[in-house]
Design goal:
The protein has 2 helices and 10 strands. The protein has 167 residues and is mainly beta.
């Protein structure tokens, strides 16, 4: 989702303390700010305790899929009126193996790390599950047991998809 104003906007309904829901809009990430050229692939979930988690890809150099890309998360405990500062999630210790297809096609910068395709799932049991890829070839999972405040060490789950590659 790239907006014409070059900002990533998430809208939601805040119900705390009002008789009627009030629609509010807030820019959570602005292109060119926070050290990133553009923010893309947004997502949002509401946890069992009511916290709002919003995440996206943070692209350092622009629209390209193979540049340095991180995953950013912001959290709200007040129905979306305010959000925490952005934090990176899912970081893995290096060195990172580059996608050989991207290198062969000269799409990737050999020194850039590309995290991509983030998905968050808020469980009814209070756990928050976060899945994402590294270099469009490896899948990882991390979990929060405290409403998205802290996250477990990422676990590689790429093998779970091997059966799908056979078809």
């Amino acid at each position: 989702m790239e907006l014409s104003r070059r900002s990533l906007v998430l809208t939601f309904t805040a119900m705390a303390g009002t008789a009627k829901p009030a629609l509010e809009k807030q820019d959570l990430w602005m292109s060119g700010q926070g050290g990133y050229a553009i923010y893309r692939i947004p997502g949002m979930a509401v946890t069992a305790k009511g916290s709002i988690l919003a995440w996206c890809e943070a692209r350092k150099t622009g629209r390209g899929d193979w540049g340095p890309i991180g995953l950013m998360l912001r959290r709200s405990n007040d129905g979306g009126r305010t959000f925490s500062p952005p934090v990176q999630v899912g970081q893995l210790p290096g060195p990172h193996k580059k996608n050989p297809m991207a290198l062969a096609q000269k799409l990737a910068d050999p020194d850039a790390v590309t995290y991509n395709n983030p998905v968050g799932i808020a469980g009814r049991d209070g756990a928050v599950h976060f899945l994402y890829c590294l270099e469009y070839m490896r899948a990882f999972y991390t979990r929060s047991g405290d409403d998205g405040q802290t996250w477990s060490a990422p676990v590689e789950i790429t093998g779970a998809f091997e059966e799908f590659r056979k078809g």
